[in-house]
Structure formats: structure tokens, C-alpha cells
Amino acid sequence: MKLEVLEVSASPHIRVGDSTSRIMWRVVAALLPALAVSVWLFGMQAMRVVFVSVFVSVLTEFIIRNARKKDMTIGDGSAVITGVLLAFVVPPTTPLWMVAIGAFCAIALCKEVFGGLGMNIFNPALASRAILLAAFPVQMTAWITPDGISCATPLAIIKEGGAAVVPETIDLFVGTIGGSLGETSAIALLIGGLYLIVSKVIKWEMPVVYLGGIALLSLFLGRDPLVAILAGGAMLGGFFMITDMVTTPITRMGGVVFAAGCAIITVVIRQWGGYPEGVCYSILIMNALTPLIDRVCMPRVFGKKKVIAPPVLKAAKSNCATEAGCAGCK
Fold first, then answer.
1. pTM value?
2. What does the alpha-carbon distance between residue 164 and residue 151 come to, in Å, rounded to a whole number?
3. What number of CA atoms fall less than 13 Å from residue 102's CA on the CB side?
4. What single string gives the DSSP state of each residue in 91-133?
5. What is the DSSP letter of 144?
6. Contact 38, 182 (CB under 8 A)
7. Residue 17's pLDDT is what?
8. Is the sign of the CA dihedral 187, 192, 196, 202 positive or negative?
9. Are 94 and 139 in contact (CB under 8 A)?
10. Fewer CB under 10 Å: which end of the chain, C or N?
11. Rounded distance, CA 304 to CA 120, Å?
12. Domains in the chain, start-ordered, CATH in brackets?
């Protein structure tokens, strides 16, 4: 009689083929269409900005991990994603030294200071963009068209309400408008986003709720809903920022709440704030609320009953000699 050997192993007992590295590099692949369009629109300057951002991000992570004597995480692609996303949210004319500062801040101050991958509270690329915008507001709001002509972004035109004409829908789709390096081409971002959904890297509910929420709220406020989701960073934020696995809720319901909150804050900032774009700050604000959302939206464990504490019975008063009674009879 052959005895079967019982194998005892540590959890998790159910394993899948995906890994952190594989997921990260799929996100990098999803960003390639937008990168190709940005190089086509803005020339080699776009490639230089992306290269410097990625190089400094990877180098900073290598130096800090080595100094802390921690395992190297460069191969997982997270630093590459941070570098590409940071390059995508800055103007094409951003000086390379400024890009390098932003990449250093993204890794050192917004990621490694919290302990590294999986422990950071805020999205590193967006947090670094907020730092650059506060430190260098002029350079971070210098927009150009693909022809190299200084211009205002479509959201800035709507915000100012001047005589300038909002670009046509086809221009918003292709990206022949002023804006950040990787935010202008909606069709390229849509292709990358659909790839992430089909490959099950991200959940479809979050981008649908986010973009749909922006469209509906903008329509309610009298704005063009199509322009609202095609202009600015809504497409980039909807597919690549709010779906970040580290800084967003882990439950499906929590993700929907997170996306809805981002949509509301984005529209509020665009409508009544002093800044024409609200994607960056809306996501950072909701990042701070992620632990609370996780706690509220955590599903009940199957089979677990809710324990109701028995009511505390008030002790009956006894015939004490004193009028007030003793402490045990109160």
C-alpha cells in the first residue's frame, strides 16, 4: 500500500502566474503607445525628458536600496513606471535638470522614505509633480503645441473664458494640443488602458466610474462632457494613476468609492478652484483617504457571525441605610 505524503507549506496555497515584476512591465508596455505619440508630436525633446526621468529614478532607487542594504527592486519595473509617468505629467519644455530633481523626489521622498515598493502612501509621480509645481510654477505651466508655439491648454481656455477657441474633438483624440508630455493623446492612452483591462492588470470599474463621473458632473455643470474627459490628465489618471495597486483601496467596492471621490474632487477643482486642472490633487487627496476607505469597505468574512454584546443590567437598589445608597447599588 502506497502512502501519500502530506505536503505542508506556508501560505499562499493558491498561486497564479502573475508576479509584481510581470504586472509592472505590462504597465510599461501599456504606456508605450502614449510614449510613441509624444515623440511623434514633440520630437526628440520628449525622448530626452523620458530618458532623464527614468534614468534618475532607477539610479536613485539603486543608490538608496544599496545604502539601506535592502534587496534590489530595480528589476521589477516600478522605478521605470514612476519615471515614465513623471515625464508624462510635465510640460515638454521642462528643463532636464528640473526633470532630474522631480525623479529624485519621486523615488527618494515619495517612495523609499516610506520603506519602498508597496509601502508608499501617495502616488510617487503625482506627488513629485505637486512638488515641482510648487517649486517651479512658471516652468511647470509653460505649454506648447507640437509646432513649438506657446499656447494655453484646453482646460485653461475654458477656465479663462477668453476668445480662444477650444480645440476640435479630433485634436483632443490625437493630441495635437498643448498640455503635458504624455497627457495629450487620448487615443493612445485609451489603447494602453484597454490593454490593461483585457490583461486583467486593472479592474474596469475604476476608470469607468472615474471618467463617467467626470463626464456626468461636467454635463450637470454645463460643460462639454467629452472635452472634460479628453482634455487634461483625466485619461492618464483614469487608467494609470487611480488604478495604482499600492496607493488605492484593495477591495472592489473601495476602488469604486475611490474613483468616485477622485471624479468629484477633479470637477470641483476645475469648476471653482484657481487651477484649471484637478486630476493630480484629487488623486493625492484620495490617496490619503485610502486606509479609511479600506476599513469601511472591507467585506465581512464568509461564515463569520456578528457578535452582539449582552446588555448590561443595571443593579437593583437595595435598602441602604443612607439615602444616596452605596456605590454598588447605583
1. 0.85
2. 10
3. 35
4. -TT--HHHHHHHHHIIIIITTGGGTSTTT-SS-HHHHHHHHHH
5. B
6. yes
7. 60
8. negative
9. yes
10. N
11. 32
12. 20-296 (1.10.3430)
